[in-house]
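Hey L., structure's done. Input below.
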Amino acid sequence: MRFAVLLLAFLAVPALSAQHAVPSDGQWLIEPGDHAGKIQLNIRSGDDRHSSNWGRDVPLSELVGLSTADMGGSGATVHFKIVRSAGTLDCEGWFRGGKGSGHFSYQPNPDFVAALNKRGINAPTAWEQFEMTMAGVGLDLVDELKRQAYELPTAEQLARMGTHGVDLEYVRDIGARGYHLRDSESLVRMRAHGVDPDFIESLSGAGYKDLSAEELVRLRDHGVDPEFIASLDSTGYKNLGTEALVRLRDHGVDEDYIARMKEIGYAPSNPEELVESRDHGVDPSYIASLKAAGYDGLSLQDLRRARDHGVTRGFVQRVKARGYGNPSLNEVIRLRDRSLD
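Output:
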């Protein structure tokens, strides 16, 4: 993924995060990353009552004093630092075959707190500052939010943004696509639901531009993607609204269902007809069974009525076997409602 998902899990029993004891030290583990110039960094800290685990692909260049030669060593001791605006992790350990582990000590940066204060942001708690250190929250993010006319975040909100992966690059990229959401919680909601610039761009390419943040979240949550939209286009249902797309997706009205219904002569101009039919259990096999029982050319509304009242091919056959001749659909429904077996 273009934007690595930040994995930050803080487990507390029973205290809230703001009450957590900030670790002065902990363990680091490093493995080769999936992309050139990056490594997989994991940080573990805490005790039996409070623990945190943090993992992310980061550029090797962020680890001051660590080189590729160090990583390729065979057990030699290494010493490097992870320097962030909010604090620094001083790390020692060893590597063998590209994988390493060791321990770190953590030092918060008081200058960062002072710089936040100058920008009108309250001092973070020690735990919030540790969260911001882990997430790489810097003053450049604060300044970018101001440039895009966002409401001034609190320290707690900044920490929340960081733990959910709302970083400088994310804010800039969605801002470049016209999304200036004013409050940080909207950014967190979009990021947490997987709405990233790639998703926005893909929907734009499918003809869905200038959507609201809520529409983007809703489409993402319900699995509406360009492939689904293209499949509907191929069946003749084009330029649908976002709510119509969500309903079709949620109710299982997909390319296959639409195509099979078309094959037997049911292609309503309003796809909502198909949503209701799908919900009532009207599918090609049910339609075929009633056709075999002598009921051909029924409307979708009639088919739904028949389905709702439990009219099946077997029931129709039993009705005819009792001497009712060729009853109309309404007569069959009345007999069914009277519990005729």
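DSSP finds 17 helices and eight strands in the chain. The longest helix spans residues 313-324.

-- N.
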